[in-house]
Amino acid sequence: MASSSKASRAVPAPVPNLAFRRLRGHRSPGEFATAVRRAAREIGEQVSCDARYIGRVESGEIRCPNYAYERVFLHMFPGLALTDLGFTAREQVRGRGAGNRAAPASPPPDRAADPDLPHHHPCCRLPLGSSESDSDEESDVLRRAFMTSGSATVAAASLGLGPGSLPDPRRVGEAEVGAVEEAVRRIRLLDDRHGADGLYRRAAQPLRAAYALLDAGTPARRSTAQRLHTGAGELAISVGWLAHDSGRLEDARSHYAEALATARVAGDPALEAHAFCNTSFLARDAGRHREAVRTAQAGQQAARLVASPRLLALLALREAGGWAGLGDRAGCEQSLAKAHAHFGRGASDADPEWMSFFAEPELEALQAQCWSALGEWARAARHARRAAALQDRRFTRNLALYRAELAADLARAGEPEEAAAAGEQVLELLGEVRSSRIHAMLADTAEVLLPHRRTPSVSTFLHHRETATGHA
Length: 472
Description:
Blueprint: H1 4-8, H2 18-24, H3 29-42, H4 51-59, H5 67-76, H6 90-93, H7 109-113, H8 136-148, H9 152-158, H10 174-194, H11 200-216, H12 222-245, H13 249-266, H14 269-285, H15 289-303, H16 309-325, H17 329-343, H18 360-373, H19 377-390, H20 396-412, H21 416-429, H22 436-449, H23 456-469
Helix pairs in contact: 3-4, 3-5, 8-11, 9-11, 10-11, 10-12, 11-12, 12-13, 12-14, 13-14, 14-15, 14-16, 15-16, 16-17, 16-18, 18-19, 18-20, 19-20, 20-21, 20-22, 21-23, 22-23
């Protein structure tokens, strides 16, 4: 029996980790452990997670995970700290908490509990936001709220449901799920018409609300529960795209990772393919071209369970963009061939709703981006011109994007006057569209055209762009 002096130095009695239990959601401990192991493989970690380990965490026996588990959990739930997951801060568990009390050195907290696990060096957490963005703190707070808010009433209000719509948080039903799905459609419609810059902050509230509904309770019907998870994941992707298109690339990365985690929890291959598709696009834009290839390939693996040739075509185009960024022409051409083969099989009833934008204009535009990355400007311009000519004018943002791509390709292809004319057409649309991506493309085009500023049409374009962006 331990002496009283030793007992006084013993760790406190375990306190159940309710926050971690909420994160597990409706999945069994064994199913959740499988998701943990899968997430570990995604980031190159190896953990021997099983249902028993999950039970020890939820019972409070494991107060703080070792470094390997820490990295996996933070990958699964980007934007959350260990304390948000219900764990005790590492310094406190080690005896270096308040007051800086002296304590004997000890191994990482979970190491003692799991002696079979190897030590791992601490790893950086997934960044939450660009240091140049004024929304970093807001984004951090929002993502913490996704999984910790328990206010189903607030969730209902922000999704357009009246007060009292959720009398019992354990009975989330059709009205709430329908509101989440409608929020996704509304955001996509507004983005198609106006671009992302003015929407990102406004879209954060319904996203918080959707995850609050998940936290409030699992619908009794399995089909409704599946729709709620899918709706929340699609909403995370939509908000991630708004962050992506408005230049908040690390915010976007966190939102896409949130959607991927939701897809894995729900076992939804269509949502998983969508999350990988956007992650690949983001990686390409961020210059992480090999990641763009890998995530596009992972998306194709998931998409094979969806029976949508168009989805496979889009993912093959994402892969092609990654190869182009790496300067691998052969890899790019092989992926483009796959994309054309899938696209040629036509539309399908299994095509996801979010793919309504993916028609021949987008096929042409993504090819233009590939050839542009490979330095074949004239060939890129031909595809970009066709994309702009085919685009339905109701999709104002995409029309502006395709014309901006055309202007950039023409400028580099040695066609300054045509480039200036295409740039002018983009400027005409910027009253309706707010997109940091498009502004950045025009800025690059203007820089390329500077040596031709004595040409009247180029001079006019440069002046109009400066006026439109407030640089005059």
